[in-house]
Amino acid sequence: MSETKSLPKTLDAVIVGAGFGGMYMLHRLRALGLSARILEQADGVGGTWYWNRYPGARCDVESMQYSFSFDEALQQEWQWSERFAAQPELLRYANHIADRYDLRRDIHFETRVASARFDEAAERWTVTTDKGEVVSARHCVMATGCLSAARLPDIKGIAAFKGETYHTGYWPHGKVDFTGKRVAVIGTGSSAIQAIPVIAAEAAQVTVFQRTPNFSIPSRNAPMDEAYEQSWKSDYAARRREARTMRTGILYAINPLSALEVDEATRQAEYERRWENGGTAFMGAFGDLILNKASNDTAAEFVRNKIRGMVKDPATAEALAPKDHPIGTKRICVDTHYYETYNRPNVALVNLRETPIDTITATGIRTSARDFEFDVIVLATGFDAMTGALLKIDFEGRGGRRLSAEWEHGPRSQLGLMVAGFPNLFMITGPGSPSVLSNMIVSIEQHVDWIAGLLGHMQARGLACVEATEEAQADWVRHGMEVAEKTLYPSAASWYMGANIPGKPRVFMPYIGGVGVYRETCDAIAARGYEGFRLA
Ligand code: FAD
Ligand code: N01
Prior knowledge:
Bound molecules: flavin-adenine dinucleotide, 3-acetylpyridine adenine dinucleotide
GO molecular function: monooxygenase activity
Shape: globular
Protein name: NAD(P)/FAD-dependent oxidoreductase
Pfam families: Pyr_redox_3
Low-confidence stretches: none
Number of helices: 16
InterPro entries: FAD-binding_Monooxygenases (IPR050775), FAD/NAD-bd_sf (IPR036188)
Keywords: FAD, Flavoprotein, Monooxygenase, NADP, Oxidoreductase
Largest sheet: 8 strands, mixed
Number of strands: 20
């Protein structure tokens, strides 16, 4: 997979990251005739789907939609085997993209970008890798991912454990064999909810350590239905066009009515229909579920009742039923037999709200109530989301400005694409863009296309430098906060708010105005000669 080749001394563009974002960016920059290389710390492509190889890892956007749309031939030829693709298939798809567009010759694997400094006189970035290699690039594109900086929990004694420890976001490449083993899972976010049922089917015993329960909707995953696939493929361009106008970039029916303007029977029937159909479209049951707490309560209670119906032990069911946040304000989970797994005799739940973890020991986990012994500890403890991977790089912009200092009180950007004071530095799905609130491939394509459009515009006019203005950035940040405050999102202690990382500023980081509205804004700015950006 990996190969060693020397990094050129100068390039038109350095792209950091070989996930879907970086790969598509490289493809578009080549088409502009620019010299570009991807620097990627892993030894293969795929980003999220390279790293997250835990059992059960799967997409929760339907395969027919979680895929590139930029090439009609590609979307016609690729065949997905399931309604929701699993990680191995998504990784195959990523490798197919790399091969089909001959991208590997311009990717430097096992190369981590450590720092990037803007040379004002030359109007170029000096990029330094962890191996001390240095490259000078006119432009830098950060395709570093929103969920790529895995986070180890700050639990005492974590290094003392003598058994096997795995983080879901750094899962080993070979199969982890759980047969006959006593397994602890710490965390109950999307990763844990996918992994627990699969691990429980194999292990001798699974103990789940839950701090906060999450809402999860059954996926109803199934082998790809041929007629369904054909219905998409025969109409792909039009459906993709429509999806791009949706709030989440996912084509599904959103009921415009308020949950409160229909009677109880109608409301329950709508929830029931969406529950049976499976997946995140559940949140489209009514138009005001993320706006109105009373409406939201009806959906939350519906799901809590489903949990109570599925989990036989009433105390476990109640512990699994979320009550501390409105449904959807933390990333909603999608599962395959998650709640039913707690009916298995080899699965137990420990409620950390009642008996917190005191320490990890050499042989297991000690809570305030007792000692547990384990062979394996699975850390499903999430990511330093949205800003984590970016801030691991030491960026120095104009006048010695450091990105870490600029973002001390939370990320600030113009459209989630650029940061004032950091010319020619672009972010794909950066904070301030719809990013994690959307079908990420739709958002990636939109950002890459917009950046390529801007660079083409500059090329045609002989321009070398672009920078977001402070005024435009301030307006965008203000607008982003105003829109967020109209929703229920800020009321949850979520990773969207930075709440999972001690000391991280509590700011709602993605843009909740919707993928369609956001695209229109970006396009209008471009049409007005890139208003809010200084070009020279
Ligand atoms: P990534 O895939 O994260 O790739 C970033 C790459 O940058 C990584 O390979 C990383 O190694 C590299 N990198 C980072 N920093 C450096 C550095 N300093 N130097 C060199 N390389 C670096 N989104 C959806 O829309 N639907 C889903 O169902 C969905 N499921 C998900 C499931 C999981 C388990 C996770 C973690 C995320 C999921 N996401 C989902 C979000 C997912 O991250 C995006 O869909 C998409 O894969 C992001 O692609 P990307 O190229 O932007 O970033
Ligand atoms: O991470 P998370 P994730 N002690 O942050 C707990 C995407 N994704 O990897 O909530 C005990 O959601 C923490 O508890 P709490 C998706 O966008 C998608 O699961 O902080 N527990 C929480 O339960 C998702 O949202 C899919 O109280 C500790 C858990 O660890 C995002 O990635 C699949 C702890 C972390 O949950 C992240 O999901 C997977 C501690 N010290 C991921 N520290 C799809 O299905 C943390 N926790 C598409």
